[in-house]
Write a structure and sequence with these properties.
Strand content: 15-25%
Helix content: 10-25%
Oligomer: single chain
Shape: elongated
Structural class: alpha+beta
Strand order of the largest sheet: 6-7-8-9-13-12-11-10
Length: 318
Protein backbone atom coordinates (compact mmCIF):
# COMPACT_ATOMS: atom_id res chain seq x y z
CA UNK A 1 0.00 0.00 0.00
CA UNK A 2 0.96 3.63 -0.53
CA UNK A 3 0.85 4.40 3.17
CA UNK A 4 3.60 1.97 4.06
CA UNK A 5 6.98 3.51 5.02
CA UNK A 6 10.05 2.46 3.06
CA UNK A 7 12.41 0.22 4.97
CA UNK A 8 15.31 1.95 6.78
CA UNK A 9 18.75 1.46 5.34
CA UNK A 10 20.71 -1.16 6.97
CA UNK A 11 23.38 0.12 9.49
CA UNK A 12 26.55 -1.75 9.88
CA UNK A 13 26.76 -3.55 13.16
CA UNK A 14 29.30 -2.05 15.60
CA UNK A 15 32.44 -3.91 16.05
CA UNK A 16 33.27 -4.79 19.65
CA UNK A 17 36.26 -3.04 21.11
CA UNK A 18 37.98 -6.23 21.83
CA UNK A 19 37.45 -7.31 18.25
CA UNK A 20 39.30 -4.33 16.74
CA UNK A 21 42.63 -5.26 15.33
CA UNK A 22 45.61 -3.84 17.17
CA UNK A 23 48.15 -2.22 15.06
CA UNK A 24 51.50 -3.59 15.74
CA UNK A 25 54.58 -1.58 16.13
CA UNK A 26 55.62 -2.83 12.77
CA UNK A 27 52.69 -1.42 11.06
CA UNK A 28 52.57 1.91 12.87
CA UNK A 29 55.49 4.34 12.53
CA UNK A 30 56.31 5.96 15.83
CA UNK A 31 57.06 9.67 15.80
CA UNK A 32 60.24 10.76 17.52
CA UNK A 33 59.62 12.67 20.87
CA UNK A 34 61.98 15.54 21.47
CA UNK A 35 61.87 16.93 25.07
CA UNK A 36 61.31 20.68 25.35
CA UNK A 37 64.39 22.61 26.45
CA UNK A 38 64.33 23.43 30.20
CA UNK A 39 65.56 26.88 31.39
CA UNK A 40 68.51 26.93 33.69
CA UNK A 41 67.57 27.65 37.35
CA UNK A 42 68.11 31.28 38.33
CA UNK A 43 70.41 32.07 41.18
CA UNK A 44 69.03 34.53 43.80
CA UNK A 45 71.39 37.32 44.36
CA UNK A 46 70.30 39.75 47.14
CA UNK A 47 70.39 43.31 46.00
CA UNK A 48 73.38 45.28 47.09
CA UNK A 49 72.57 47.46 50.13
CA UNK A 50 73.49 51.05 49.86
CA UNK A 51 73.99 53.03 53.03
CA UNK A 52 72.93 56.60 52.63
CA UNK A 53 75.13 59.42 53.79
CA UNK A 54 72.46 60.62 56.30
CA UNK A 55 72.47 57.32 58.15
CA UNK A 56 76.25 57.34 58.35
CA UNK A 57 76.14 60.86 59.75
CA UNK A 58 73.58 59.89 62.41
CA UNK A 59 75.65 56.90 63.47
CA UNK A 60 78.81 59.00 63.74
CA UNK A 61 76.99 61.76 65.65
CA UNK A 62 75.52 59.24 68.07
CA UNK A 63 78.96 57.77 68.72
CA UNK A 64 80.40 61.24 69.33
CA UNK A 65 77.63 62.14 71.78
CA UNK A 66 78.14 58.88 73.65
CA UNK A 67 81.89 59.49 73.83
CA UNK A 68 81.31 63.08 74.99
CA UNK A 69 78.88 61.92 77.70
CA UNK A 70 81.40 59.38 78.98
CA UNK A 71 84.09 62.06 79.00
CA UNK A 72 81.87 64.48 80.93
CA UNK A 73 80.96 61.77 83.41
CA UNK A 74 84.63 61.00 84.00
CA UNK A 75 85.43 64.71 84.28
CA UNK A 76 82.58 65.32 86.76
CA UNK A 77 83.65 62.32 88.80
CA UNK A 78 87.22 63.59 89.03
CA UNK A 79 86.76 67.35 89.35
CA UNK A 80 83.18 68.32 90.17
CA UNK A 81 82.82 68.65 93.95
CA UNK A 82 79.11 67.99 93.64
CA UNK A 83 79.67 64.32 92.67
CA UNK A 84 80.12 61.77 95.42
CA UNK A 85 83.44 59.99 95.79
CA UNK A 86 82.11 56.66 94.53
CA UNK A 87 81.49 58.17 91.07
CA UNK A 88 77.86 57.10 91.00
CA UNK A 89 76.15 59.54 88.65
CA UNK A 90 72.80 58.78 90.22
CA UNK A 91 74.02 60.15 93.54
CA UNK A 92 75.25 63.49 92.22
CA UNK A 93 74.04 66.78 93.56
CA UNK A 94 72.66 69.28 91.09
CA UNK A 95 75.28 71.91 90.26
CA UNK A 96 74.75 75.41 91.45
CA UNK A 97 72.62 77.56 89.18
CA UNK A 98 74.58 79.89 86.99
CA UNK A 99 72.04 82.66 87.26
CA UNK A 100 72.72 85.45 89.74
CA UNK A 101 69.99 86.23 92.24
CA UNK A 102 68.68 89.77 92.33
CA UNK A 103 70.34 91.75 95.11
CA UNK A 104 68.28 92.30 98.24
CA UNK A 105 66.85 95.72 98.70
CA UNK A 106 68.39 96.04 102.14
CA UNK A 107 71.74 97.71 102.62
CA UNK A 108 73.22 94.54 104.14
CA UNK A 109 74.54 92.10 101.54
CA UNK A 110 73.25 88.55 101.62
CA UNK A 111 75.78 86.05 103.04
CA UNK A 112 77.45 83.64 100.62
CA UNK A 113 78.59 80.06 101.07
CA UNK A 114 81.93 78.87 99.61
CA UNK A 115 82.68 75.33 98.40
CA UNK A 116 86.37 74.45 97.87
CA UNK A 117 87.41 71.07 96.42
CA UNK A 118 91.12 71.86 96.51
CA UNK A 119 91.39 72.76 92.85
CA UNK A 120 88.78 75.44 92.42
CA UNK A 121 86.60 77.59 94.60
CA UNK A 122 82.94 78.09 93.86
CA UNK A 123 81.02 80.85 95.56
CA UNK A 124 77.29 80.31 95.61
CA UNK A 125 74.71 82.90 96.55
CA UNK A 126 72.84 82.24 99.76
CA UNK A 127 69.74 80.16 99.22
CA UNK A 128 67.61 82.58 101.21
CA UNK A 129 67.23 86.28 100.49
CA UNK A 130 66.40 88.60 103.32
CA UNK A 131 63.14 90.41 102.59
CA UNK A 132 63.41 94.16 102.25
CA UNK A 133 62.98 95.92 105.52
CA UNK A 134 61.43 99.27 106.06
CA UNK A 135 62.28 101.53 108.92
CA UNK A 136 59.20 102.87 110.59
CA UNK A 137 59.27 105.85 112.91
CA UNK A 138 59.25 104.79 116.55
CA UNK A 139 55.87 104.92 118.16
CA UNK A 140 55.05 105.31 121.80
CA UNK A 141 52.13 103.30 123.03
CA UNK A 142 50.72 104.47 126.34
CA UNK A 143 48.42 102.03 128.02
CA UNK A 144 45.28 103.92 129.08
CA UNK A 145 45.36 103.35 132.83
CA UNK A 146 43.96 105.43 135.70
CA UNK A 147 46.24 107.90 137.39
CA UNK A 148 45.30 106.46 140.76
CA UNK A 149 42.47 105.72 143.15
CA UNK A 150 40.47 108.46 144.86
CA UNK A 151 41.96 109.66 148.13
CA UNK A 152 40.74 111.96 150.88
CA UNK A 153 39.14 114.25 148.30
CA UNK A 154 37.55 113.03 145.08
CA UNK A 155 36.95 115.36 142.13
CA UNK A 156 33.42 115.45 140.71
CA UNK A 157 31.81 117.70 138.11
CA UNK A 158 29.43 119.27 140.67
CA UNK A 159 31.90 119.75 143.57
CA UNK A 160 33.94 117.50 145.86
CA UNK A 161 33.39 114.13 147.50
CA UNK A 162 35.20 113.88 150.86
CA UNK A 163 36.62 110.68 152.29
CA UNK A 164 34.33 110.89 155.32
CA UNK A 165 31.32 110.62 152.99
CA UNK A 166 30.35 114.29 152.88
CA UNK A 167 29.75 115.92 149.50
CA UNK A 168 30.27 119.67 149.04
CA UNK A 169 28.54 121.16 146.02
CA UNK A 170 28.91 124.33 144.04
CA UNK A 171 26.93 127.30 145.35
CA UNK A 172 27.38 126.24 148.97
CA UNK A 173 28.67 128.91 151.33
CA UNK A 174 32.39 129.47 151.46
CA UNK A 175 32.61 128.99 155.22
CA UNK A 176 30.89 125.57 155.21
CA UNK A 177 33.00 124.25 152.33
CA UNK A 178 36.30 125.46 153.79
CA UNK A 179 35.46 123.89 157.13
CA UNK A 180 34.54 120.51 155.60
CA UNK A 181 37.70 120.32 153.44
CA UNK A 182 39.90 121.44 156.33
CA UNK A 183 38.49 118.59 158.40
CA UNK A 184 39.97 116.16 155.86
CA UNK A 185 43.15 117.95 154.76
CA UNK A 186 43.95 120.31 157.61
CA UNK A 187 44.28 124.03 157.43
CA UNK A 188 44.71 125.47 153.91
CA UNK A 189 48.18 126.32 152.66
CA UNK A 190 47.07 129.66 151.22
CA UNK A 191 44.02 131.90 151.51
CA UNK A 192 44.17 135.17 149.57
CA UNK A 193 40.85 136.57 150.69
CA UNK A 194 38.45 138.36 148.36
CA UNK A 195 40.07 140.34 145.56
CA UNK A 196 39.19 141.49 142.10
CA UNK A 197 40.53 139.44 139.17
CA UNK A 198 39.94 140.19 135.51
CA UNK A 199 39.74 136.54 134.56
CA UNK A 200 36.97 135.72 137.09
CA UNK A 201 33.33 136.68 137.02
CA UNK A 202 31.75 138.61 139.89
CA UNK A 203 33.10 141.57 141.75
CA UNK A 204 35.63 139.72 143.89
CA UNK A 205 36.98 136.18 144.14
CA UNK A 206 38.76 134.25 146.91
CA UNK A 207 41.36 131.53 146.26
CA UNK A 208 41.99 128.93 148.98
CA UNK A 209 44.44 126.04 148.32
CA UNK A 210 45.61 122.76 149.83
CA UNK A 211 48.67 121.62 147.94
CA UNK A 212 47.67 121.08 144.30
CA UNK A 213 43.94 121.63 145.00
CA UNK A 214 42.60 125.16 144.66
CA UNK A 215 39.03 126.24 145.55
CA UNK A 216 37.41 129.46 144.25
CA UNK A 217 34.71 131.36 146.12
CA UNK A 218 32.86 134.26 144.50
CA UNK A 219 31.45 137.18 146.51
CA UNK A 220 27.77 137.59 145.70
CA UNK A 221 27.53 141.15 146.99
CA UNK A 222 30.47 143.52 146.92
CA UNK A 223 32.01 144.15 150.32
CA UNK A 224 30.04 141.54 152.23
CA UNK A 225 32.73 138.81 152.09
CA UNK A 226 29.87 136.38 151.79
CA UNK A 227 31.00 134.07 149.05
CA UNK A 228 29.80 130.90 147.38
CA UNK A 229 31.75 127.85 146.21
CA UNK A 230 32.01 128.25 142.41
CA UNK A 231 35.06 126.27 141.14
CA UNK A 232 37.80 123.76 141.97
CA UNK A 233 41.12 123.51 140.10
CA UNK A 234 43.76 120.71 140.25
CA UNK A 235 47.35 121.13 139.04
CA UNK A 236 48.48 117.67 140.18
CA UNK A 237 47.20 114.43 141.66
CA UNK A 238 49.46 113.57 144.59
CA UNK A 239 49.08 116.63 146.93
CA UNK A 240 46.82 115.53 148.44
CA UNK A 241 47.28 111.95 147.27
CA UNK A 242 44.49 110.54 145.14
CA UNK A 243 43.27 113.86 143.78
CA UNK A 244 41.40 112.22 140.88
CA UNK A 245 37.86 111.53 139.71
CA UNK A 246 35.99 108.33 140.56
CA UNK A 247 37.20 106.81 137.25
CA UNK A 248 40.85 107.72 137.94
CA UNK A 249 41.11 110.81 135.72
CA UNK A 250 43.65 113.27 137.03
CA UNK A 251 46.63 115.35 136.02
CA UNK A 252 49.13 113.21 133.96
CA UNK A 253 46.35 110.93 132.70
CA UNK A 254 46.72 110.29 128.97
CA UNK A 255 44.43 111.53 126.24
CA UNK A 256 43.97 107.88 125.32
CA UNK A 257 42.63 107.23 128.81
CA UNK A 258 40.25 110.18 128.47
CA UNK A 259 38.96 108.75 125.19
CA UNK A 260 38.40 105.32 126.69
CA UNK A 261 36.83 106.60 129.91
CA UNK A 262 34.71 109.51 128.70
CA UNK A 263 33.74 108.09 125.29
CA UNK A 264 31.49 110.20 123.10
CA UNK A 265 31.00 112.84 125.81
CA UNK A 266 34.62 113.98 125.34
CA UNK A 267 35.20 117.07 123.21
CA UNK A 268 38.89 117.80 122.56
CA UNK A 269 39.85 120.87 120.55
CA UNK A 270 42.86 123.06 119.86
CA UNK A 271 43.43 125.28 122.91
CA UNK A 272 45.62 127.90 121.21
CA UNK A 273 45.81 128.32 117.41
CA UNK A 274 49.02 126.82 116.09
CA UNK A 275 49.89 125.21 119.46
CA UNK A 276 49.66 121.45 120.16
CA UNK A 277 47.96 122.06 123.51
CA UNK A 278 44.45 120.66 123.73
CA UNK A 279 41.36 121.86 125.60
CA UNK A 280 38.71 119.30 126.53
CA UNK A 281 35.26 119.23 128.10
CA UNK A 282 33.17 116.21 129.04
CA UNK A 283 29.52 116.39 130.07
CA UNK A 284 28.23 114.20 132.87
CA UNK A 285 25.03 112.72 131.40
CA UNK A 286 23.43 112.53 134.85
CA UNK A 287 24.00 116.04 136.16
CA UNK A 288 24.79 117.88 132.92
CA UNK A 289 27.87 119.38 134.60
CA UNK A 290 31.18 119.71 132.81
CA UNK A 291 34.64 118.33 133.54
CA UNK A 292 37.27 120.56 131.89
CA UNK A 293 40.99 120.39 131.39
CA UNK A 294 44.00 121.02 129.20
CA UNK A 295 46.39 118.50 127.62
CA UNK A 296 49.94 118.64 126.35
CA UNK A 297 48.73 117.49 122.93
CA UNK A 298 45.69 115.97 121.30
CA UNK A 299 47.43 112.71 120.45
CA UNK A 300 46.61 109.60 122.49
CA UNK A 301 50.04 109.93 124.14
CA UNK A 302 49.30 113.49 125.28
CA UNK A 303 48.76 114.02 129.00
CA UNK A 304 46.43 116.10 131.14
CA UNK A 305 48.24 119.16 132.54
CA UNK A 306 45.33 120.77 134.41
CA UNK A 307 41.81 119.81 135.47
CA UNK A 308 38.82 121.83 136.78
CA UNK A 309 35.07 122.06 137.18
CA UNK A 310 32.95 125.22 137.54
CA UNK A 311 33.11 128.26 135.26
CA UNK A 312 33.72 131.20 137.56
CA UNK A 313 37.33 131.81 136.46
CA UNK A 314 39.06 131.33 133.11
CA UNK A 315 41.82 128.66 133.18
CA UNK A 316 43.03 128.86 129.60
CA UNK A 317 44.46 132.06 128.18
CA UNK A 318 44.83 132.83 124.48
Amino acid sequence: EDDEEPPAPARPAPTPVGARPVESASTTQALPITPAPQPEPLRYEPPARRVSGGVVAVVILTALIAALGIGLLVFRTDDDPTVTNDGDPTATTEPAATTTAAPATTTTEAPTSTVDDGSSTTTEPATTTEPPTTTEPPTTTTTPVPVGSPGLVTLVETGLKLDGGEVVLFDQSADSVIAAVSAELGDPDTDGGYEEFDFCRGDRSRFVSWGQLELVFTEEELGTEDGRFTQWYASGHDEPEGLVTFSGIGVTATVGFLEVTLGSSLQLVEAIPGDPTGLFAATNPGSGALLNGTTSSRDPEGTVISLWAGDSCTRIFT
